[in-house]
Amino acid sequence: MLGFTVDASGWQPTPITPNTLEAGQPPLLLGNGETFGLLTLPADQSSPKTHPIVIPETHQTAFIDPQGNLDFVDSAGSPAGVLGVNALPDARILLDENGRLLLLADPTTDYAHGILGDEIEARSIVLIDSQPHPKISNRIAIVGDLVFEGLAPLWADLNGDGRSEIIVTASNATQGAQILVFDENGEQIAAGPAIGQGYRWRHQIAVAPFGPNGELELVEVLTPHLGGIVNFYQLRDDRLDVVAQLPGYTSHVIGTRNLDMAAAGDFDGDGQPEILLPSQDLQTLAGIHRTISGAEVAWSLPLSGRLTTNIGAVSLADGSLAMGVGLENDILSIWQAPLSGVP
To answer: Which of 245, 240, 250, 261 lies closest to 201, judged by CA?
Structure first.
């Protein structure tokens, strides 16, 4: 694996040690500003379909083992606890500022859509407290024949009350996918419209003040493999209402576990966040923002080849943003904000 450091003066190659992973395993990069390396665990101890996380509050590492347990080790590598969560083998572990963890669990093959790398989806969401000792705080089970179709929820404050909601895509063979919103106690507080046809997916991506007046909105891509419509939602009572749409974009390549072909941020420096997405042919990146009348492309960047990776975005020391993508012609393209392109 190759590394590059980006700052206000440009970029330069940076050694990564260790620099190898199991095939298909997403990376977790650790660094101290001078040296960088991948956090790795022995293949027989951890699932190769996801990555571990580091919990700063406890100085522990948490990871999913081959049996679906959530294992904890301390900074010396000694065991610090095991929770039988029955995690998805490819679940992404989320971590909040209080050292709590959130992940998808209880695998099922009842809905064999198979667009995210396998035909296994989740039947529950598990919330975990890591302090003072790891314990399961809540398990939120889906009802009926629905499954949680994804690798991780969104964990974000959607209603502006200062507390995070849990946002998931729920699917079945009858209605297809819809967005559901739960509070951390497991109560469903809102739902978006269902597609109305099975084996059609929607990809929830980010919550941010996308609205033209700074309103909190959720953005998704509806059917990213079939035309791709960017939807912006606002939470209204117990509903998620679509307030703006823009067709022609994608956020996922069918059959892969790469759900990071999108990024949200103020990339052009105008004070309003955009959602950054590739075009359906993966040849252009577009910064899409909300307007009073709907949603439109604020700027776009033609690529010199077809996008084949996630979109990596980082905050630089001066507060500006940088992003990078990998292309099919073995080129890594890097940009620094403020970005502008073809309106």
So the answer is: 250
Decide if 234 is inside a domain.
yes
In a domain, 319, yes or no: yes
Sorted by sequence, the CB contacts under 8 Å of residue 67 that are 6+ apart come out as: none
Please choose, from the candidates 113, 240, 261, the residue with its C-alpha nearest in 3D space to the C-alpha of residue 176.
113
pLDDT tens-place string over residues 239-265: 999 999 999 999 999 999 999 999 999
DSSP 124-153: EEEEEE-SSS-EEEEEEEPPTT-EE-SS--
* Residue at 191 is within a domain: no
**Is cis: bond before 132, omega within 30 of 0?**
yes
In terms of pTM, does the model score above 0.85? yes
Hunting for tokens 């990071």 — which residue is that?
260
Cβ burial of 136 (10 Å; 0-12, 13-18, 19+) is middle
Q: 52-101: per-residue pLDDT in tens?
A: 999 998 999 999 999 999 999 999 989 999 999 999 999 999 999 999 99
Q: How far is Cα 88 from Cα 262, in angstroms, rounded to an integer? A: 23
Instruction: Note down the domain range covering 333.
Output: 205-343
Give the CA count within 13 Å in the CB-facing half-sphere of 167.
Answer: 26
CA within 13 Å, CB half, 68: 13
Q: Kindly report, residue by residue over 194-234, the tens digit of the pLDDT.
A: 999 999 999 999 999 999 999 999 999 999 999 999 999 99
Q: Does 51 reside within a domain? A: no
Q: Distance (Å, rounded) from C-alpha 212 to C-alpha 148?
A: 31
Q: Which of 59, 56, 145, 148 has its CA nearest to residue 105? A: 148
Number of structural domains found in the chain: 2
